[in-house]
């Protein structure tokens, strides 16, 4: 790794990303503490948002490990960092991919739940969260098997250390190529992006219709019926608050997908892979920190 890139990477991924990561951990911890309270956990949409906060909280830890530890270990300050990185890399990369997938589908589940005329029960929402988590782990098993750990001499000292490397034999096999082209990319990129675009459009249209309907005067002659209408409108406004948060999350996910696709395809010939990785990790941790907006929008 050349010296100029090492300095840039150390500043962006090793310092800035870690600082924003701590801010993201605080934002998501606030979100989890509120949505897991008795007041909100009776709402299925709130449960999906709570699961999203938990997923982004853990995802931030993995990004801080991959972005921060990998850069500080290149400085050769602490020899144990080399072994921690080498031994933990395969598991952390696996968790990062799994948590990124769960966050995407938790967002999709929350959007679908907001569009339903009769939202699912909290029990069914918990079952959906468990199923999404288990399927995400199963989906990433081949990725976990494609990383090996080698014991070698450190570049910065003569002490032996562990370093991760890709299993090129497995990654070049026909089965792995089929897995990436027809299973991983469609289920983790193409399908979620299409669903987010469709659900985001439907949510915005639904929200605009609700606001237009809420502005219309309701003629009443009976006091009890008027009180019923006030309670109904109040409950609709509460649901709109959840919907507004979900719309914001969907839009941010679409922006994240757009940046990821732009970096991978438009900047593929311009930037080195290491630069691309640093940019994506920085944007991803900023995305996780955006959950502060959801916390501020809690009804």
Q: Can you put this structure into words, describing what you see?
A:
The chain has 299 residues and is mainly alpha-helical. It has one domain (3-296): Rhopdopsin 7-helix transmembrane proteins (Up-down Bundle), CATH 1.20.1070.10. Helices cover 79% and strands 5% of the residues. It contains 10 helices and 2 strands. The protein has helices spanning 3-35, 44-73, 79-115, 122-139, 141-145, 168-171, 174-215, 223-266, 273-289, 291-296, and strands spanning 147-153, 160-166. Strand 1 and strand 2 (160-166) form a beta hairpin. The chain is globular.
Describe the protein's topology.
Elements: H1 3-35, H2 44-73, H3 79-115, H4 122-139, H5 141-145, E1 147-153, E2 160-166, H6 168-171, H7 174-215, H8 223-266, H9 273-289, H10 291-296
Antiparallel strand pairs: 1-2
The number of helices is 10
What is the radius of gyration computed over CA atoms, rounded to a whole number of angstroms? 23 Å
Q: Compute the average pLDDT.
A: 75
By oligomeric state, this entry counts as single chain
Which term fits the overall shape?
Answer: globular
Write out the CATH superfamily name: Rhodopsin 7-helix transmembrane proteins
Largest sheet: 2 strands, antiparallel
CATH architecture: Up-down Bundle
Percent range for β-strand residues: under 5%
> Kindly, what is the distance between the CA atoms of the first and last residues, rounded to a whole number of angstroms?
49 Å
How many domains would you count in the coordinates? 1
Mind telling me the CATH class?
Mainly Alpha
Structural class: mainly alpha
Order of helices and strands: HHHHHEEHHHHH
Helix content: over 70%
Which fold name fills CATH's third level, the topology? Rhopdopsin 7-helix transmembrane proteins
